Amino acid sequence: MNENKMLQSTSIIIFGATGDLAKRKLLPAFFNLYIEGRMPEQFNIVALGRAEKNDDDFKNYIKENLILFSRNKKAIDTEWEKFQSHITYFRHQIDEDKSYEDLELKLKSLDEAYGLRANRLFYLSIAPNFVSTISGHLKKAELASEPAQDRIIIEKPFGHNKKSAVELNELLSRTFEEEQIYRIDHYLGKETVQNILAFRFGNSIFEPLWNCKYVESVQITVAEEVGVESRGGFYEGTGALKDMIQNHLLQILCMVAMEQPASLDAGEIRDRKVDVLKSIRRIPYDMVDHYAIRGQYAEGVVKDAHVKGYRQEDGVDANSPTETFASIKFYLDNERWEGVPFYVRTGKRMREKQSYITIKFKPLPQSTFIGGQHALSQNKLIINIQPLMDIRLQFMTKMPGLTVELKPVEMVFDYFSCKEDTPEAYETLLLDALEGDLTLFMRSDQVEEAWDVVKTIQEYWENNPDPSFPNYAAGSNGPKQCELLLQREDDSWA
């Protein structure tokens, strides 16, 4: 974040302001940015919703949720009155021309109060099927007609396959320039994910080792303890492949595998990410079972509590073929990563919540300490994303004593030791959007390439339901077949 950057006056328009994302993430993020002096001096949040509410009702609703979800709860008593003066609730029907005409009048009145034509940041916190409707109305009402000033943020899922992603990109391009479109992936706002670039390209001791000569494998894990909870109906049409791997995990893979950018320019960094996605070897349709494993959780025990299986969740079909776990082995066909397997896995109702990256270095070809009583562990670099936020380097050292015995130890950099109150991912991304920085947002070709990477897997799984579902117990580490994915390479999950 740039504390010294002067932000222009901005009107922030949130579609779906009464929804779950807005109350849990967006408005707490704007509040936290405000109390830390990161918002423009002149700004207004125009909260759009269908419900009959007045400003006071909506503001009380927001305050209640700040108490629940803001990381700066102590500041609510002293800062709320000033912050709430920047919020306006605006009743809005997304499919009615009159609502957009009224919104235009509201934005013009704010411009008059600012004394200039302010920037406009539209946040579409709505179901994907409404994107087309809103985009068309914004174009018709000319509400986002200034490419240098007007921006739109769109949440995932961005399409449901490559064809729909291409169609959505074409639709948005009829209303917005590419530099106006901010396709958000909150994983890229996480502090430890952002730090990958600094860690790699800011340290001379690591970048020379970051290639197939020294790296044996790369593992990316995003595991969740929770099930689908109240999102069963949504998840039925999604699954782990589309919900997590196509976006979050492939984005992390790009950060790990990309070539060094010539600069920190957004276009340069995004070009390097697209290069990675293009280099990922596409999996042939008839080889999907060899490279990809899927699973669905049955009932089980999580934290000493019995939980039901996926097919017993509300909104889920009793014979559902939807995967709640997915693990894939990818290869990158480029000089840096030739022959290095990249393993990704994600699942719900896993043993514990954890997101991390493991870089496993190749064993020594020969050593004084190989054989005999000395058992050498391979060197590993582990980047923990959540709930831990740290970087761990595992290496061998001699145990204190009169004999020569080796043991693995860890050198740890813990983010919490530097800043106990770390900004939320949405704070980082919203500030970037206010500043017009596209670096952490996905470009149209990036989205389409990511869908292309998983295209054959998606088609094979849709056409060939797995008869073994459910095939892993809630509270486990996923289906046993997932281990075979690595055992073929004499490897194991770290």
Explained architecture:
The model has no long low-confidence stretch (mean pLDDT about 90). The strands form 4 sheets. An 8-stranded mixed β-sheet has the order 8-12-13-7-14-15-16-17, with helices on both faces. It has 14 helices and 18 strands. The two termini are about 35 Å apart. Helix 6 (about 160-175) packs antiparallel against helix 13 (about 445-465). The chain has about 500 residues and is an alpha/beta fold. The longest helix has 20 residues, at about 445-465. A hairpin with a 7-residue loop joins strand 16 and strand 17 (about 405-415).
- Uncertain residue ranges: none
Helix tally? 14
The biggest sheet, with number of strands, parallel, antiparallel or mixed sense and barrel status, is: 8 strands, mixed
The coarse overall form would be globular
Please tell me how large the radius of gyration is.
Answer: 24 Å
Please tally the β strands and state the result. 18
| Overall SS class | alpha/beta
Alpha carbon gap, first and last residue: 33 Å
Helix content: 25-40%
Strand order across the largest sheet: 8-12-13-7-14-15-16-17
Could you tell me the strand content as a percent range? Answer: 15-25%
Mean pLDDT: 92
What's the SSE blueprint?
Elements: E1 10-15, H1 20-35, E2 43-49, H2 55-69, H3 76-84, E3 87-91, H4 97-114, E4 119-124, H5 131-140, E5 150-154, H6 162-173, E6 181-183, H7 191-201, E7 215-223, H8 232-236, H9 239-257, H10 266-279, H11 288-291, E8 292-295, E9 297-298, E10 300-302, E11 305-307, E12 325-331, E13 341-347, E14 354-361, E15 380-386, E16 390-398, E17 406-414, H12 425-435, H13 444-463, E18 472-473, H14 481-487
Parallel strand pairs: 1-2, 1-4, 2-3, 4-5, 5-6, 7-13, 9-18
Antiparallel strand pairs: 7-14, 8-12, 10-11, 12-13, 14-15, 15-16, 16-17
